[in-house]
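Archive maintenance. Older records in this collection stored only the sequence; we are now back-filling the structure field for every entry so that each record is complete. The fields below show one back-filled record exactly as it appears after the update. Entries are processed alphabetically, and SLC13 family permease is next in the queue.

ARCHIVE ENTRY
Title: SLC13 family permease
Organism field: Ideonella livida
Length field: 577
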Amino acid sequence: MTLAQIIVFASLAWLIVELIRDKRSPGALFAGVAFLYLMLDYISMKDALRQFTNNGLITVVVLLLLTIVLDKSRMLELMADKLVRGPYRWALIKLYGATALYSAFLNNTAVVASLIGPLKGNREHSASRLLMPMCFAASLGGILTLVGTSTNLLVNSLLAGRKMPELQLFDLFPVGILIVLACGAVMVLLYPRLLKAQPPAEEAVSDYFLEAHVQPDCPLIGKTIEEVGLRNLGHLFLTEVVRGDYVIAPVEPDRFVNAGDILVFSGDVTRVDLLARFAGLKIHAHHDELPMDNLVEVVIAAGSSLARRTIREVDFRSHFDAAVIAVRRGAQRLGGSIGNTRLEVGDALVLVVGQDFEKRNNLSRNFVIVSRREVQKFVNPRKGLYSMLGFIAVIALSAFEVVDFLKGMMLLLAIFLATGLARVADLRRNVPWELIMIIASSLVISEVMINTGVAKLMASGLLGGAEQFGPYGALAILLLVTWILTELMSNNAAAALAFPVALGVADQLGLSPMPFIMAVLYGASCSFITPYGYQTNLMIQAPGRYTLGDFVRTGLPIALVFNAVALVAIPVFFPFR
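Back-filled structure field:
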């Protein structure tokens, strides 16, 4: 093994470990490794810079900018109530079909964000029985077309970077529809038993925790918890007391209240009014002088600047005209001061908001608003209809090869700007810089892995136990490896790392690379058994009150069927020779 190969192997091992640890931005990690290769002259500056003009990368950027306009359409949101009417199985079929179809052409993250609120507020079925199948349907719908998910576009960018034939809009459909139908059948058969109904929304007690600060002049000071009645509030339960650097839990009835204590309550956050009757107790938001009757529930979005920062580090009032009064992380019990809670993607927050909250331009980038209608949707439904019709027209024209897909998307974006459906400021704020960095850097990393022979060595190791099973064995192992990677890290990162290995496997076997590349593409969308593999899973975790066990129990059958159908169908539509 050469020195260059040792360095590339070591850097890739470090990259995988850091992606799994999820402590740093994936874009920064990929860019760091690509920069290392550039400094070591494993790739020329000219070749590295060329990756930023990759046709596939430009398509990703244009399409994601278009979805900023398309996401404002409330069509699917308005349909949600009709989709969930009727018996549960029938509602499941309607919801699954509509979500998968919608996600085949629109960003599945936006589809999930649009449906969380309406499904959470419906009275036909428990939200816990709807959010997970909806989320999985959105992921599955993404494998029906090239534009269904950014992972498909990333793989297409990698193909373009290797000067290989690029994928067309509906090349993924034959295999994708078989997977979607098979997984849908599993859901309809198993989910009525696997997904348990939670109590109706008005009867459910939330897993939020909120805190009240004991002021120096509070009349409760020097009295016991039981004496002042803090243990018998009905809708709120005193779970712990934060006293300086100490956390007192459980809280005994004879525990005295001290000045400066932070009393942490769990329960129905909408009954925060129960604490208002205690003089000298101040809810977190009172320090910001915001009205307590204007509550909004949000989920921390993927890519939010709030992730991995404590609430104390974030100046909520100046950034959002809001203050956090309660936090929830799935079914996990959080403790300690709210101000010291380190936020994670998928955390649910209850905010007290001011008059300017809905006018802030950074809401959609940081939050998914689930307690009421998304604030940036088109008020005029005709605008949403026009934007959708324009998008469908471009899709149809490109499918019949009347216009080039990328040119059609660029023309549509120009029309949106000219007609006022899109604003330059909105587009500028929402440029997917991290995804651009991941794609461009992964193109550099892929080139280096192939040129240094690392991809070939990894392929040889991968094929070590599959030679007796032939190409199907190699395809199965590649599917399995990509699936495991995408459960441990983002699907884009998994696809970027597995792509050069797929080329190495094809080269070792002397077969067409397309079935192995398709294994990477489909396998990278098979993220169902943990909430961490894909951002939409995180988005539904708190609103659906799901645990890791819920994802494993409901996601494993889907993942197994997904991979089994993919293994059989891929060679049929993408032959080995």
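Update note: Confidence is low (pLDDT under 50) at residues 200-205. The radius of gyration is 25 Å.
Entry marked complete.
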